[in-house]
Amino acid sequence: MSSNQLDKKSQAWSALFSEPMSELVKRYTASVFFDKRLWKADIQGSLAHAEMLQAQGLISADDWAAIQKGMAQITAEIESGAFEWKLDLEDVHLNIEARLTQLVGDAGKRLHTGRSRNDQVATDVRLWLRGEVDEIGVLLGELQKALVDVAEQNADTILPGFTHLQVAQPVAFGHHLLAYVEMFARDAERMVDLRKRLNRLPLGSAALAGTSYPLDRERVARTLGFEAVCQNSLDGVSDRDFAIEFTAAASLLMVHISRLSEELILWMSQSFAFIDLADRFCTGSSIMPQKKNPDVPELARGKTGRVVGHLMGLITLMKGQPLAYNKDNQEDKEPLFDTVDTLKDTLRIFAEMAAGITVKPEAMERAAKKGYATATDLADYLVKKGLPFRDAHEVVAHAVKDAIALGVDLSELSLTQLQAYNPAIEQDVFEVLSLRGSLNARNTLGGTAPNQVRAQVARHRARLA
Ligand code: ARG
């Protein structure tokens, strides 16, 4: 086949076809306009393959030199925007190979020895995704650091802790933020873990059955930094479980982002007024002059649906595919690309936004006071005075009911009033009924006492350093 024949995709594979592909089918089956994003990984994979072919004596040293030279030129062309991507050449792989052959002749045609686009594309996607997973790991670290900073500044700031979105017990705002740090830390762990399974080399599986050439797959794996070689050629070319696993981890990450977004939105609303987000993360309204809307967290909450959608798309794409490679798998790319883009943008913007939160401690404390957040503390106090917990719970329920009727907090009842519920109550109860006393009392590992929060801040800082 001559190099100008390779330019015409309708004839690219063989003389078997007696009519050219229809324009509609060409457009329908082509992937170059999205998979050209894989160009760097494609060239990297091709170079590693060619280097091995040469080491195994399957191509000459001259061919290897020509391939390197050609690939260097192609790299420059793509980087400068001069490279001409052709729909007729279907995908990134055929575009680069055709250009290589145009530039270096027969050496370019020898590159595909012992290789198929099936193991080539599986290798490219893994290589590309590995780099993205590493970047996402770094961005997750940045977001955690930003949250840890705000948490440290707010180790003492009192926030009403909620269950059922009803005031439950006071917590430190720092403690609340560190809950998200825990979530994002697990998300980062998931990335590290899935990277191990992602980082295995399919190349050498060829079309599906392996190849008759004496390839050195371990050598290619070492060159490309893969930890292992896929041990079954059918599996190597066909499974996209690594992409599904990544998208699943991405979905969980976005679910955590979405939960945080929901809280930021609530906290910024006038009814809460616990925080303010910097103006640069908000927008106004074209009709209501007073409005400042938390668009960024709202959009992030919305984009969570999009990423979860990609997970559904990929997992459904895989379902029912017989071994080995099927063209269905070409559909893995757009969801994967969009998931990566969405994740990276969202993580960057959240790290910046977290650093720019204005905390309004008085509003938080006022809200905590309104909700009888220290009722459990009074029950615990009575338990320490010898009452069984269930009885203490009942006594305090009566006290809260009366306080609500009087429109006061428990701490605003007089000692005499409190003693009417139980004579064991003494003057020291007022420390127990204070928000700060309640906070300080929860001084067990993982609890909200400010010194526990500070200890966690120190642990996270050491971990994230
Ligand atoms: N563009 C294809 C993909 O993304 C490359 C592999 C095509 N292989 C084939 N035999 N048609 O999956």
TrEMBL record:
Signal peptide: none annotated. It holds the Pfam family ASL_C2. It catalyses: 2-(N(omega)-L-arginino)succinate = fumarate + L-arginine. Keywords: Amino-acid biosynthesis, Arginine biosynthesis, Cytoplasm, Lyase. CDD domains: Argininosuccinate_lyase. It is found in: Cytoplasm. GO terms for molecular function: argininosuccinate lyase activity. PROSITE patterns: FUMARATE_LYASES. Residues 17-309 form the Fumarate lyase N-terminal domain. It is an enzyme of class 4 (lyase). One of its GO terms (cellular component) is cytosol. Residues 372-440 form the Argininosuccinate lyase C-terminal domain. Pathway: Amino-acid biosynthesis; L-arginine biosynthesis; L-arginine from L-ornithine and carbamoyl phosphate: step 3/3. Its EC number is 4.3.2.1. One of its GO terms (biological process) is L-arginine biosynthetic process via ornithine. Belongs to the lyase 1 family. Argininosuccinate lyase subfamily. NCBIfam families: argH. This is Argininosuccinate lyase. It comes from Aquabacterium lacunae. The gene is argH.
